Structure formats: C-alpha cells, structure tokens
Amino acid sequence: MLNKIQNQRSSEEIRTRIPWIFWFIWKARNDMVFELKEISPMEILHSATLEAASKSLAYVVSAVTEENESPLVVEHRTIPSRPFCRFDASWKDTDTRYVEGSVIVNEDRNIIFGSFSSNRVLSLLHAEILTSSRLWLNGF
Q1: Using an 8 Å Cβ cutoff, are 131 and 90 in contact?
Q2: What are the C-alpha distances in Å from 72 to residues 69, 75?
Q3: Which of 67, 102, 112, 120 is the Cys-Cys partner for 87 at CB 3.0 to 4.6 Å?
Q4: Is 45 exposed, middle or buried (0-12, 13-18, 19+ CB in 10 A)?
Q5: Contact 82, 137 (CB under 8 A)
Q6: Burial zone of 130 (CB within 10 Å; 0-12 exposed, 13-18 middle, 19+ buried)
C-alpha cells in the first residue's frame, strides 16, 4: 500500500496521514475484537486526518518557539569549600563479617578514604549506624 501511494506521486500531506490511518485501523480492529464495537471506515479516515493535522500543527508550533528562544547562558558556580562525608556499609545475612567505607573531603579539598571490617551485625541498618558513629567518634 505504501509503495502504491509513493508511486502515484501523492502529496506530502497525504503521505503523512498514512501512518495515522494504519494506527486508527488497528485501533478500530481492537475495538471490534475486544469490545464488539464497530467503527465506520469514514470515521476511521476522519479521525486519522484530524490526528495527522494536529500532529503537524504541533511540529509547526514547536519549530516556531525554538526559533524564538534565546540561547541558554550557563553559569559556572564554584562549590563552597566545606567538609563533607560519604559513607556506606556492606552486609549480608549469610556472612560472618560486615564492611564499611567512607570518603571524607575537608575544607582544603583533601580526600581521606577509610574502610573497616568487623564481626557480623544484626542488620544493614545496624551496619550503617555503626559506620556513622565510628566516623563521629574519630572526629569526622
């Protein structure tokens, strides 16, 4: 069907409707099979034409707004130098140990890595709490 339409030198407007016609035929088929609802061929064609027209209008409107938009200005802000800390713990209920790790960045942007392993804990929440409390006790 598509080859036949292209060979007939049809207009661009007609060619843009074809996918919508197929889509609405498919929807009408589903309505007939699943909901026992029949839709006339003229109604299918009308719906497809309206949808194709609204879609092409949406492309025209978006193209016009893109032409009118000014380029975005990107601001590069420096991150204030304040210390921060990230930590995490790894725990499995079948293992006899848990592991914790941390990354600390101080005001001078020095990076300190740390890790620790200990006996098994009851849950992942306990491992996370132990990790954060160990950092606080060490003054971080």
Answers
A1: no
A2: 9, 10
A3: 102
A4: middle
A5: no
A6: middle
